[in-house]
Amino acid sequence: xxxxxxxxxxxxxxxxxxxxxxxxxxxxxxxxxxxxxxxxxxxxxxxxxxxxxxxxxxxxxxxxxxxxxxxxxxxxxxxxxxxxxxxxxxxxxxxxxxxxxxxxxxxxxxxxxxxxxxxxxxxxxxxxxxxxxxxxxxxxxxxxxxxxxxxxxxxxxxxxxxxxxxxxxxxxxxxxxxxxxxxxxxxxxxxxxxxxxxxxxxxxxxxxxxxxxxxxxxxxxxxxxxxxxxxxxxxxxxxxxxxxxxxxxxxxxxxxxxxxxxxxxxxxxxxxxxxxxxxxxxxxxxxxxxxxxxxxxxxxxxxxxxxxxxxxxxxxxxxxxxxxxxxxxxxxxxxxxxxxxxxxxxxxxxxxxxxxxxxxxxxxxxxxxxxxxxxxxxxxxxxxxxxxxxxxxxxxxxxxxxxxxxxxxxxxxxxxxxxxxxxxxxxxxxxxxxxxxxxxxxxxxxxx
Amino acid sequence: xxxxxxxxxxxxxxxxxxxxxxxxxxxxxxxxxxxxxxxxxxxxxxxxxxxxxxxxxxxxxxxxxxxxxxxxxxxxxxxxxxxxxxxxxxxxxxxxxxxxxxxxxxxxxxxxxxxxxxxxxxxxxxxxxxxxxxxxxxxxxxxxxxxxxxxxxxxxxxxxxxxxxxxxxxxxxxxxxxxxxxxxxxxxxxxxxxxxxxxxxxxxxxxxxxxxxxxxxxxxxxxxxxxxxxxxxxxxxxxxxxxxxxxxxxxxxxxxxxxxxxxxxxxxxxxxxxxxxxxxxxxxxxxxxxxxxxxxxxxxxxxxxxxxxxxxxxxxxxxxxxxxxxxxxxxxxxxxxxxxxxxxxxxxxxxxxxxxxxxxxxxxxxxxxxxxxxxxxxxxxxxxxxxxxxxxxxxxxxxxxxxxxxxxxxxxxxxxxxxxxxxxxxxxxxxxxxxxxxxxxxxxxxxx
Lengths: 448, 448
Fold this sequence. Notes:
alpha+beta; Transferase, Pyrimidine Nucleoside Phosphorylase, Chain A, domain 3; Pyrimidine Nucleoside Phosphorylase, Chain A, domain 2; five-stranded mixed sheet
């Protein structure tokens, strides 16, 4: 395909998207390549991105976008490693530490898990920030080390390198400052270009909706899930998505070390019910896609067994040791230093908890130090929240609902206020809500 | 109003427009001011402009946008010049030389005409380029000279100076390369900020629709006309608009000197019917708004009288002399040198002319040298087309329809082909079309 600059007029391509026309394959390829080569300036790209945001893209356009973003960098070749390589991606939420638990579970069951993760974004946490709360743990492996660790342990947990989808990095930075982030085709291109670059054969997606998710509405999450599946399958990768609720945080712990702590508990068979329900389903699906179980249900059983017999916990210790982390603190997490400021947010009334707004709790945790308010901020691994109660619990007035941890005295008042506002207590019992609502595959949508 | 940068987050303002919310007055003022001060980069402005293009602006937002663009530069104070100052603006077409004819007519009738014009754009001609075909004529007067000439002759014809609406200049350059030109609020801001800066008291607008206009559909032209009226009146300026058809060129001459030639004929009472119908209506309306006639009809009568008694022609000679132009060639236009290449496009069939596509003829004239294909191109004042027949005329096979003039032999084949394709001849007589369809004022729309 001839993608010489002279053949295209970027203003007329922006115009096409502006006028809701479908871009031809070569036109869209040209835009991404020329932008990567600095032949299209940011001011034209941002107008194009806004036109995409408002007018959308077809499945075919999204697949081409993804492929061009993918090919802007290196695509890791994992064919020398035997087995079906499977990763999981979550669209982000509060208290979502499933990666830390399922990666060792799935690897322990014989499925290689090549995982390149991200950092916290806005109110949501990031796997890399959580891993870095383990003293010594390095997520900055190069792609050669990435392959070596995967080969040795069947699992590796690293951050995005410079070689992975650089077009995504540039486009994301531009989208971030031009209000063009929450676009289904652009999110799809961003997620899938990075995941496909890992060298995976299959992918399980946890697409979240609700207060603490980036997609507030289930219908939008469904639309995103379908688009992700469409693009994944168009690259010949088995792709399965689940729609999961993010109204209240997942599990009881929010914050970086806090989430590692809860993950260790989970790997020792002490994980809370909601967290384990999501983690086991995702892990079971990965084991099934990895060809080590005949069904998702059988995969879930294997995943549970890997916890019962200690293999998953051992795998986690192996990863931590391999990537330079302190295994002593993993074995004895109660020795981890605690935050200097701790206080409880208690129930203002007697009754049933109806709301524990995941978004507000996520923002409060960020303010306490668990995330970045500005890009240059450093993260306090000890900062966070521990939920003593979840939605549906009956509480007495004055009973502790959230225990708060911070090293920043300036932040506590504001966070305390946010947390109080995030809690709603009523006399009547709340309706049970569905945690995992749908399974989406290329065959279609199944209600769960 | 406090418009400190720190109070605003440009990404969140882009988001508001993206989500179809109405911007608050201070938010919109901030965007234009901060962009003018280089505090908002082009890549954020272009995303904002695309959001405006696709989601629109309210009348109130458009008025605020216009005011900020206006206030980015100097607003000429003409209060020292007696009388109601009235200008005319056309949204652009092919063969539209009404400014050259009506400015001296209206000035001769005692209404001051302060006119700051533009250059040719795409397929359409520009008043400045036409004036510069007169040897020696200078359109580059500063704002002080502008006032002096207006005071002396009741009329002045200049180009946009650096001081006039610099925000429009920057925004237009950005819109031009980001496919955000054809937006009603952005066009309105651009036109009205420049016109209001002239120091006018009233404005007559010629909003064109059809093949040779920028708005192809009458409904879009109507929408633009209403928006222009709304903004003009919100600034306390009497504003009247006419919707006029631009299917075939206006008058018979296209090209810079050719249009000056036809204007001289018109000022001597020899103008073609369609050109005079539009010119007299616009002039009559200006004379009425300028308080020198009790009605538009009486204004038209005065305008006609100014031609009959030679005052309009004398006024034109006065302007040319004042602004450095050669009056001899105006008195004896047949002495103007002719283009080296001349040929006729003749009728391929016998029948009625149904189409003389103004857009294609405009593009052909540009290719022959009458306009700029690239910004750096120079204009050939001798290049152009003369229509020997107009729509509705009955022609014999081989009869000349268009006489073509160029000094660029390379361009003739292509232009010839375009001109042939612009002509459609049928056996049946075409239906009469309306030249001037509606009058729009703050009181409402009247069909004409």
